[in-house]
Amino acid sequence: MAEITAKDVQRLRRRAGVGMMDAKKALVEAGGDMDKAHDLLRERGLAQAAKRADRDANEGTVGSYLHHQSGHPVMGVLIELACETDFVAKSPEFNEVANDIAMHVSWSAPRWIERDEVPEDVLSHERDLIARSARTEGKPDAIIPRIVDGRMEKFFVENVLNDQEFVNTQKYEGKVGDMVKTLAARVGENVKIRRVARLAVGEPES
After folding, report:
1. What is d(CA 7, CA 13) in angstroms, rounded to the nearest whole number?
2. For burial by CB atoms within 10 Å, which of 103, 121, 143, 176 has the most?
3. Where along the chain do its domains lie?
4. Full-model pTM
């Protein structure tokens, strides 16, 4: 079995957002394979989070981020990160994640939080545009449905917050949605992003 070093454990902790013992145990189970260990931790965290997803999350915190330019704020973001208890809502870790997500939103400017929030008319319009573009490119009709599916995934990544890769990989490597589920697994509660507001000087109203 490959030697598991403290550096490996730290790297996995940062990537998966878990405690030292959980990271070390996963690496041992995966024979030192970093990717397999990360997948193991994700499977466990996602399974636990799924069980809690239907529980009420009526507590929470408001994360915030201000982007400054020439000494004054030119962009601001507020997000509501919901949980089940005020104990978790007041914890430093929970509030740090809320602020980190707000910072991410300032950079990525998502239009929706989850895929199921995207209106059906928007989805139909995008699919139609992609299909027409593929035909213009001379793609065979038989493969156009696959092209549409692939390019729709890109649309979701560009526009849906939970599908976006978190911008600061030094803190978390993975999608924002998985980052929230990892937090939910650590605190043992249902956690979700409920609302997002982003304002920037000079940008038109959405």
Report:
1. 10
2. 176
3. 6-52, 59-114+160-200, 119-158
4. 0.72
Strand residues in 48-191 grouped as ranges (E): 59-69, 72-83
For 138-182, write each residue's pLDDT tens digit: 889 899 999 999 999 999 999 999 999 999 988 888 899 989 988
CA nearest 61: which of 37, 91, 38?
91
What are the structure tokens assigned to 12, written together? 């996995």
Longest alpha-carbon distance in the chain: 58
One of 3.30.479.20, 3.40.50.450, 3.40.47.10, 3.40.50.300 is the CATH number of 59-114+160-200, namely 3.30.479.20
pLDDT in tens, 100-150: 999 999 999 999 999 999 999 999 999 999 999 999 988 898 999 999 999
d(CA 151, CA 51): 31
Confidence band of 1 (pLDDT split at 50, 70, 90): low
Measured between its terminal Cα atoms, the distance across the chain in Å is 54
Which architecture, in CATH terms, is 6-52?
A: Orthogonal Bundle (1.10)
Q: Are 200 and 75 in contact (CB under 8 A)?
A: yes
Q: How many Å apart are CA 163 and CA 183, to the nearest integer? A: 16
Look at residue 206 and tell me whether its pLDDT is greater than 70: no
